[in-house]
Write a structure and sequence with these properties.
- With about 375 residues, the chain is mainly alpha-helical.
- Helix content is about 45%, strand content about 5%.
- The chain has 13 helices and 4 strands.
- The structure holds zinc ion (ZN) (2 copies).
- One zinc ion binds next to helix 5.
Length: about 375
Amino acid sequence: MPGGNAGQCEMKIHDDIFYDAVFVHQERLRAERTHAHAHCVINQMMMPKLNLLVRTTPQRWESLESFAYRAVDLNGLRSLSEVARALRWKPGRPLPLQRCQQLMNSLGQGYTQLEPMIPTEISRKEIQLGGHTLKRGHLALSSGRFCPDCVKQYGYGRAYWSLAPLPVCEEHGTYLVDVCACNPDTPLNTARPGYTQCSCGADLRDSPRKRASLAAQGLAQEIVRRYKLLPDDYQDHPLAPVELPPETSLSDLLDLIAFLGSISPEYARMHLDRTRPVMRLSHVAKRFEFAAQALCCWPAGVFPLIRRAYSLLGEVPYSSRTAYRALQPVMNVAERWLAAHVYGWFAQAVAEFIKTPSAWSAHDNRFQAPDCARKK
Ligand SMILES: [Zn+2]
Ligand SMILES: [Zn+2]
C-alpha cells in the first residue's frame, strides 16, 4: 500500500507528541496534588481542629455569637473565650475573609448555613453579612443585642440584630435589649458567662420589654425582609415604609435611616454621627423612631424633621428662598452621607417642603406623628 509506511511514521510522531503531552499533563497533576496537599496541611496547622463533644447545629439566621455561646453551654465549657480561641475569632470583631474560609473548612459539613452569618471583613471599610456588603459602621458587633422573647421562644439569637441602626425585633415589635439593670450605661459584651446571662447573674430573658411604635415595627420588618432577601409582597405591615427608589440596597437604607434620625440643627453633631456611628440602643431607638415616622408617610412625614434642622435659628423662613437657604447645611450632609439616587429622592422631598409654606412653621417643633392616610 503506497504511502502506508509514511502513514505509520506519521502516526509514530503523533504518538510521541501524544505521550509527551500525557506525561506533561500527569506531571502537572502531580504538582497540583502536592500543592493542594501542602495547602491542606498548612490550613490544618493554621486552624486547630475544634473538638466539641456535642456538635452544635447552626440555626437559620443565627448569629456567630449566639452559635458560639450555645457551643459553650452544650459542651460545658467555662467561657466564650475557649471557643473563640479554638476558632481564632476575636468576639466583637469581624472575621478576615481567609480566616472565615479556614473556619468553614475546619468545621466541615453541616455548617454551610453558618457561613453567611459570620461577619466577614472583605476590605478595610466593608464587611459582608448575610450576603450583603455593609459599611463597618452599619454593624454593632462589640455589644450583645437580643430580643428576650425570641431567645425564650427559639433558644438562639439572630445575626441581623447586630445591624447598628436597627433597635426593634421585627417579630415581637419590641425594642431589643443591650444592657442589664445592674449597669444600665454599659452595653453587654462577650465577657458575660452566657448568651442571656449577665455577669451579675441576672437572666436577661427577663428584661423588661418596651413596645416600639407601629411605624418603627413596619420599618424593622422592612429591614429584615431586605436582609433575608424576601420578595416585596412579603411586607404587609400597615405602616411599612414607602417605596424606596428601586436600586436601594440594604446598606443604602441603613444610611438613610441613620441620616434621617440624626437631622438636627447642630451640624457638628450630624457630622460626628456620620463618622462615629452611635451603637448604643438607647441612642439608636430615638433616631429609628424619627426615621420610621418620616418613611411611613413620605414626603409629608419628613417635614417635621426638616423643620428641626433650622429650629435653633429661632426664625421661620418667610419665602421659599429663605427656606432653601436654611436647609443648605442639611443638604450638604445628605450629599456626603447618602447614595446618589437616595440623595436625589430625599432632595425631592425637600423641594416639596420648600413649595409648601404651611409646612415651614408648626405650633410645636417637637416631632409629631404625621396624619398619614396611606395604608397598604
Ligand atoms: Zn423577638
Ligand atoms: Zn447584670
